[in-house]
Amino acid sequence: MQEADKHERVVEMVMKTEMPESSILKKYGSTFDYVDYYQSSFIDKEQSIDVDKIVKMFFTSPPKWVNVLFTLRNKVVGFLGLKTPDGMAERQQQLDSFKC
């Protein structure tokens, strides 16, 4: 099954919200310069969702600007002689072997 097909089986709803009472950030009070809180619900039409799938969806569907920044980063660090990912094949291999 194609990765895009897998994503269509899960409907995601994201809403902006307040800091949850159970948040570990509560112990720091309100001394943050900037914070956003979001709550997300997933509806799995085939009832086959698990944590691994959620994490993989998160890492395989970033906003376009994130991909642009990573491409820029890889070019800069590659120019400096640092190791960069070998592209989509390495990324897919990492995702395939990922376990929570």
From TrEMBL:
Q: What is this protein called?
A: DUF2867 domain-containing protein
Q: Name one Pfam family in it.
A: DUF2867
Source domain of life is: Bacteria
Q: Which organism is it from?
A: Pontibacter cellulosilyticus
Q: Which InterPro entries match?
A: DUF2867
